[in-house]
């Protein structure tokens, strides 16, 4: 990732809340702490930001305004993605639901693959924290399932609720398992196409004991996007039978428990 691209991502994150922490920057950018410090120095020299304890904030003179969040997220709208590889996603959803125990509290990140586990949760009487209105709608008919939502801005194309980087919008909730998807998985880690998604998923990861990644086999091999987490931060990865031998080796060598769901 070039310096100009990193600086653009930093300013995009600041546009939402006016502040971003060093921890969030390290999670979102494919760069070393030293590189991030140099980026912040350049932005400060140009008058865009002011470095403060724990991170950076918007400079008073900058044109970056936290009052106007972006209207769209990067990536394809939910309705265009939901039918892609649907059979594989349904198999992955069934395998993910099988990992849930009765009465558990879990977190389910928004996505077209995580959505497919919802029908299989009927009767488990779970407590589910999710940022996805699609998942809320899928769980509403289940009388025994308790649903929690974070606060934030609603992004209509994905029907997902996201808060700015640096803002703690989650209820006081800790869960043994987080189920999440990704735009891509490669040697550099788990990736998403939008820096706002990265910040939201990092908050979920920090509240979970186990990270369970749900991705169909088409997501392997691409290296584009902002990094959500390293591979060694993932505990279990569920995918379909189309995964290549090379991708399976990469997952296992990272110490991840690989589950291949049968169609």
From TrEMBL:
<dbReference type="GO" id="GO:0003700">
    <property type="term" value="F:DNA-binding transcription factor activity"/>
</dbReference>
<keyword id="KW-0238">DNA-binding</keyword>
<dbReference type="InterPro" id="IPR036390">
    <property type="entry name" value="WH_DNA-bd_sf"/>
</dbReference>
<dbReference type="InterPro" id="IPR050313">
    <property type="entry name" value="Carb_Metab_HTH_regulators"/>
</dbReference>
<dbReference type="InterPro" id="IPR036388">
    <property type="entry name" value="WH-like_DNA-bd_sf"/>
</dbReference>
<dbReference type="InterPro" id="IPR037171">
    <property type="entry name" value="NagB/RpiA_transferase-like"/>
</dbReference>
<protein>
    <submittedName>
        <fullName>DeoR family ulaG and ulaABCDEF operon transcriptional repressor</fullName>
    </submittedName>
</protein>
<dbReference type="InterPro" id="IPR001034">
    <property type="entry name" value="DeoR_HTH"/>
</dbReference>
<dbReference type="Pfam" id="PF00455">
    <property type="entry name" value="DeoRC"/>
</dbReference>
<keyword id="KW-0805">Transcription regulation</keyword>
<feature type="domain" description="HTH deoR-type">
    <location>
        <begin position="3"/>
        <end position="58"/>
    </location>
</feature>
<dbReference type="InterPro" id="IPR018356">
    <property type="entry name" value="Tscrpt_reg_HTH_DeoR_CS"/>
</dbReference>
<dbReference type="GO" id="GO:0003677">
    <property type="term" value="F:DNA binding"/>
</dbReference>
<dbReference type="InterPro" id="IPR014036">
    <property type="entry name" value="DeoR-like_C"/>
</dbReference>
<keyword id="KW-0804">Transcription</keyword>
<dbReference type="Pfam" id="PF08220">
    <property type="entry name" value="HTH_DeoR"/>
</dbReference>
